Amino acid sequence: MTAFPDANILYVDLNEKKIYRDKLPGNIYRLYPGGSSLGLYLALHNLKIGIDPLSPDNPLVFSVSAVTGLPISGITRMNVSCKSPLTGGIGDSQSGGFFPVHLKFNKIDAIVVRGKSEKPVYLFIDGDSAELRDASMLWGKVTGESEKIIKEDLNREDVEIAQIGPAGENLVKYACIINMCNRANGRNGMGAVMGSKNLKAIVVAKGKSIKPVKSDEFFSLSKSVMKRLDKNVTASNLGMYGTDADLESYSNEGFLPTKNWTRGYFPEGANNITGTTMHRTILKARDTCFSCTVRCKRVVEVPGMVDPLYGGPEYETVATFGSYCGITSIEYVSLANQLCNMYGLDTISCGATIAFAMELYEKGIIDDEVTDGIKLNFGNAEALPILIKKIAIKDGFGKLLAEGSYRYAEMLGKDAIDLTVTVKKQELPAHMPQYKPSLGLIYAVNPFGADHQSSEHDFALVMPENTMERKRLSMIGINKGCDDLFTMDENKVKFALETQKFYSVLDTLCLCQFVWGPSWQLYGPDDIVELCKTGIGWKTSINELMQIGERRINMMRAYNAKEGFTKADDTLPVKMFEPLKGGPADGAVLDKQAHEQAKELYYDLAGWDRKTGNPKQSTLTKLSLQWLI
Ligand code: SF4
To answer: Which of 17, 337, 395, 474 lies 20 to 30 Å (CA to CA) from residue 345?
Structure first.
């Protein structure tokens, strides 16, 4: 077996105010080679069953990967793992930017934070030194202010900062962790867990870069990115117009979730909020992550209203605050994005929870007395900034919405629950299972709630056989295509599962899914093998990588099983099975019977028990996960 590097772990005990380093031996690290896999391995060895996610007992793990920091596009993601206060199961969340590589440049593969500090602190890492510093002066401050104060406190500019805003301090269930003031570990409420520990920020000094072990071959791979970008229309459009590039065409086709998923089209507003309009009107610059040529990140400015410091909205943000809420103003959507980045809120859960409240209001389930006098009709853009701030500081009606749409609905009763669009209590991202049934399957079974970046979307399978997409899918065992997008047969189930394993590899190696992937992306599965070999001397194979991806999914499911999750938690919201009305989406519906059959087949193929939906012992053993039995 090729020698694999040891992982460098920094342990931070906030109860005892102790910090120490340890190593995870290379033979174990190779099974969990970074990101989500490493984070889960470290979290689950420290996580007691049944604990309150907001108690000091919940370990919070930040992790990068064995290949993080190599100079190539799409290589700078960071994972955060812990028990989620939003779902009650395992939490898992990724972000990009520059913070992740600087962790690695300080020779850290993961940070495990345990306990709770008596008073607010921040962790400062500079090479071999790591210290806890007083953060009392930062408490209550938004991210932009905190970033400025931290740099003054340290008297240095050459630092990267991952932090929480007031929402995390106030334990909002979907608070996030923000770095660069505009990159988020958004999902699953990781910011609330950080807030529960009185840990305001982690600050890393900029460190020394890493060199690949076989530099000629490595740079030949990394330099090929420009040629690949020239040939790849999807990726170059993504770079030019951002992730929001196609929002208007989604509406025209009928699969843009609109007005809390009561419609699939948004003719009155899609053109105003789509990526090309953003590009033409308020875009100030295209931004990027470490070493990435694609430059898909947005920086927008609306003088007197939206500050470029807080970046610009992604597709999910534009959809949740835009079409979900019936808002037609890109300026207000950008302001909502800014406020979430300032206060540290997940834009998907926040926008979707407000959209849900708007439907409650329109249907007369709640009124002005409940909403603190806010007229919460769909389309009321001015309500967004007021509500976002109220949620972050848990003021009045904001305190109810800070629980997320599902928990708030539980307080109101069944009629309200039927209007929620959540899985495992987490709000759905803006891709419709009515059009993407394999994605619907992954939404249901994914251990940390519905996620649009945990498998390849159905479109890849309807591409002609000789395309790059189909050739890459065949590398991971998907050899057959499909003529009809809406089909949910055995081949589609296999496609869902195998691409889920592959995306799980990406979240392990902390690779950006817009650059590395199993179909349309710039680099395919074979390129990842080459990256590992030329970057760190790891002679791996697609098979080994796929098993790593499978191991990660099973770790999460095995933990959830211990927390009492069963197949009953793999349930899509009722709205998915009610035909949409009007426009190009008229009549579109997810076939319930086909969906349920697909789920059973998925359990079989995954080696999970059909009765419980949980991994069989034989599956865990096959994946070297006996320690979880
Ligand atoms: S494609 Fe976009 S999100 Fe991904 S690494 Fe590049 S700039 Fe960052």
So the answer is: 17
